[in-house]
Amino acid sequence: MEFDIKDKNLAAAGRNRVEWAQADMPVLGSIKKDFTDKKPLKGIDIAACLHVTSETANLMIALKEGGANVFLCASNPLSTQDDVAASLVFNYGIPTFAIKGEDNDTYYRHINSVLDFKPNITMDDGADLVSTIHSTRKDLVSNIMAGTEETTTGVIRLRSMEKNGVLLYPIIAVNEAKTKHFFDNRYGTGQSTIDGILRSTNILLAGRRFVVVGYGWCGRGVAMRAKGMGADVIILEINPLKALEARMDGFQVMKNTEAALIGDIFLSVTGNKNVIGEPILSRCKDRTIVANSGHFDAEIDLNYLRKNSKSVRKVKPMVEEYLMNDGRRIYVLAEGRLVNLGAAEGHPASVMDMSFANQALSVEYIADSKKKGNNLGKKVYAVPEDIDKNIAKLKLASMGIEIDRLTEEQEEYLASWQSGT
């Protein structure tokens, strides 16, 4: 079996971590049981470019139980848990190509390693797998049924490809499922981002001015958690509706040049480039902390920092100090990459349970569509609503929660127009 990992001796520790996460992923567990019985993915080759974590491992195991041949690489150079990668190879027989801290060349070599298995389905987290296929591996397209995408950033890229008529095969936008972005993006990103910031810095959030750039579902989650820990939260937005919502939610809203003068911590969650850039970095206070929880490391203008600093030094494992030419010190966490995975362990298993249930059932939907001859067009599709609702029901059941149903009278009332005052 081909693989590229850091150390096979980490496998035992990785297995413990995988099993720990498994206990908190009951929805995916029920899907795995069904997959084991029915083998809906038998003979299908799946190339997955995801964060190599204990939660991802459980998804890979479920897909393999469904009959698929699974090949995994990392979707970010800093997000791999090396013990989990070792366990996937030596305990579960899943070819894995991921090493925490891998350089750019290794990162893309690993992507091409999983593509060398000529997948029928791709599974992406940020669309690097898809973009590699579209740029240098177009020979694989004829063999591909469809793919899935996990992140906001990836969906943005894929919709751009669709709009420009260059998308070569269908993609299901798992990120757009309500049981994904309402929960994973808000509660998962909210908690894991704060976790990463605190693990890397050990600062007290209470009393600090915490600036969140972007008030989407991820931004909402981070703002909510930072406020809960006593921070004075400031929101930066370009969308007037989201800015208004942030203000109504009790947060200060202002321009980046204003926030730059008073902020202690700046966190970007936008999926866009250089949103923590010159307007902030040229004005911010001495000892300002900047971090990113968007998928790529483009959200902080690291080039500006390099060009306008005297020196750079690592002051803690995931903290780099840029000594600016004017004497200010700016601290960048996790090299400007996802702080929640670079400096912490990513989202809790219980929330990834729903996200990866969407991945698993979307892959089953792709395979079933192909069997039935229902060929999808070269577009970005939403997760089917019945899958979304089923996952919510399974999650509620796993939590021991029952909810009411409409009576026949209530259903008739909602379906009629005759009744009024």
Please report the first level of CATH classification, the CATH class of the largest domain.
Answer: Alpha Beta
Indicate the radius of gyration in whole angstroms: 22 Å
The gross shape turns out to be: globular
Helix tally equals 17
Quote the distance from N terminus to C terminus: 71 Å
Give your account of this protein's structure.
The chain is of the alpha/beta class and 421 residues long. It has two domains: 8-180 and 347-398, Rossmann fold, CATH 3.40.50.1480; 186-342, NAD(P)-binding Rossmann-like Domain (Rossmann fold, 3-Layer(aba) Sandwich), CATH 3.40.50. It starts with 10 loop residues before the first helix and ends in a 6-residue tail after the last helix. It has helices at residues 11-22, 26-38, 54-65, 82-90, 104-115, 128-136, 152-163, 178-201, 217-228, 240-248, 256-262, 278-281, 302-307, 339-342, 349-371, 385-398, 408-415; strands at 45-50, 69-74, 96-97, 121-124, 146-149, 171-173, 209-213, 232-236, 252-253, 265-268, 288-292, 309-316, 319-324, 329-333, 380-382. The longest helix is centred in the middle third of the chain and has 24 residues, at 178-201. It is globular, with a radius of gyration of 22 Å. The protein has 17 helices and 15 strands. The strands form two sheets. It has an eight-stranded mixed beta sheet, sandwiched between helices. The protein has a seven-stranded parallel beta sheet with strand order 3-2-1-4-5-6-15, with helices on both faces. Helix 1 (11-22) crosses helix 3 (54-65) and helix 2 (26-38) runs parallel beside helix 3.
